[in-house]
Write a structure and sequence with these properties.
single chain; alpha/beta; twelve-stranded parallel sheet; seven-stranded parallel sheet
């Protein structure tokens, strides 16, 4: 049996299969249970508690670096900032260095016990995400695709986003995305990840086997946990999510990272909002290609919006019994 990866203008509108909806709910709780077990936690009573236990002590962090965190320009973090086991955080007010101009609308944990615990929980989360069986094996390029919830791995090991990647929640608050990336994650200049139909950015995870680079003026969503380093190029943003480096440095240049409320749908972004976020201060213009409906401040080739649907093998998930009542 084959399943089709949907394109931006083909949202796979066929009726849901009740059994698969149940599978996604069990799958979300499976991740929560796996992380909770590794962290020594116990009962999960609700979706919000499940999210908290999946993220552990990392939940409040917008940015958590390992060796160092460096910033240039007026970066704004709406959430906590931390580093461990390194000691240096440069370019932010309120740190030991206190050298600005970055602003942290949250707590700063500079080589303290909170940052240490969060790094431990992040490592646990990374290992759980990388260890889950894959539902899909897909090519490196994600731009132009619309993906429903599932566990994705990449045939070549690396992942790229050029243009727009859409994550479709199918009006199911339990939809979850686990992108298992063996090597690097790279987003192009002006690229974007948008969420539709109730997709929750707190249920979007990017486990990166080496390093991640977010391109200039790109708009990203979800939690990135990179084994090595994370680099933000100029004006890149995570509008809902967090960035965590387990071993290497976190490098920032005039960026914005915002931690969203658990269980929310803050990730739903209209086309006009997307253009405003990607290119602040610039007037949007529509793509000049006939048939392309996405309006942003740069022209997007139709090849990025209407790629050929590519079938991939349907890897069945293991049957799980939901023992939570």
């Amino acid at each position: 049996m084959w399943r089709t990866i949907c394109t931006t203008l083909n949202l796979c509108s066929r009726p849901k299969e009740p059994s698969r909806v149940l599978d996604r709910r069990v799958w979300t709780r499976k991740i929560a249970l796996a992380v909770a077990a590794a962290l020594g936690l116990v009962v999960i009573a609700s979706n919000s508690e499940a999210e908290a236990q999946v993220l552990g002590a990392t939940e409040a962090f917008a940015v958590l670096g390992a060796s160092t965190v460096t910033n240039t320009g007026p970066t704004i973090l709406n959430g906590d900032l931390g580093v461990y086991a390194g000691t240096a955080i440069t370019g932010f007010f309120g740190t030991v260095e206190d050298d600005g101009p970055g602003i942290v609308n949250g707590a700063i944990h500079q080589t303290d016990g909170v940052a240490q615990t969060a790094q431990g929980d992040a490592t646990t989360l990374f290992n759980v995400l990388m260890g889950l069986p894959s539902d899909f094996v897909i090519p490196a390029q994600l731009g132009g695709s619309t993906l429903v919830g599932g566990v994705y791995e990449f045939a070549g090991g690396a992942a790229q986003i050029t243009g727009v990647l859409t994550l479709d929640g199918q009006n199911d608050p339990n939809s979850l995305w686990d992108f298992k990336i063996a090597s690097t994650l790279t987003t192009a200049t002006g690229s974007a990840v948008i969420l539709i139909r109730g997709a929750d950015p707190n249920n979007v995870f990017w486990a990166v086997g080496s390093s991640a680079t977010l391109g200039a003026s790109s708009v990203f969503q979800g939690t990135i946990v990179a084994d090595q380093s994370i680099s933000f190029l100029n004006a890149a943003s995570i509008v809902c999510g967090r960035a965590i480096a387990l071993v290497g440095a976190m490098t920032m240049i005039n960026n914005t990272v915002t931690v969203c409320a658990s269980g929310g749908n803050e990730g739903d972004i209209t086309e006009d909002e997307l253009g405003a976020k990607a290119c602040p201060g610039h007037r949007r213009r529509p793509s000049t290609h006939r048939g392309c409906s996405v309006r942003q401040c740069w022209p997007i080739p139709c090849s990025l919006i209407l790629p050929s649907a590519r079938p991939v093998p349907d890897r069945k998930r293991p049957v799980l019994k939901n023992t939570l009542h």
